[in-house]
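User: My collaborator sent over this chain with a note saying "see what the structure looks like." That's all I know about it. Can you take a look?
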Amino acid sequence: MNIEITVATRNIEEQTDSKSFRYVFAYTITIKNNEDVAVQLFNRYWLITDANGKKVEVQGSGVVGEQPIIQPNEDYTYTSGCVLETEVGTMEGYYQMAKAGDELTNVAIPVFRLAIPNIVH
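Assistant: Without extra context I'll predict from the sequence alone. Here is the result:
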C-alpha cells in the first residue's frame, strides 16, 4: 500500500514533572494516501520504549476516536500524546488500513524519537 507517514514530536513542558519521572510528549502524524483509491484506517498498534528499556504495547480501534477515510492524494493529520518515565524514548508500530472491499494491510509507522530538548543520549 502506497501510504506516506510523517511525524513531528514535541515535549509538553507544562505537563512534564522530572521529579515524578513524568515526561509528556505530543506527536503529530500526517498520513498521506498515494494510492489511486480511498483507504480507511481501522486500527493502530504502538510499541513504546523508554530509555530504561521498558516497553509498552498499545493497540486499539482507529486514531483519536476516528477511523478516517483518506481520499487519493489527500492526507489526514492528527495529534496525540504519550507519557514516559524517562527523558527519551521511541515509538513505532503500524496502522491497519484497507482499500474499499480489500483485506486489512499493516502499514508500518517508522520508529521516531521522543526527547526533552537538548538531551543527549
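A starting point for your reply to your collaborator: The chain has one domain: 3-115.
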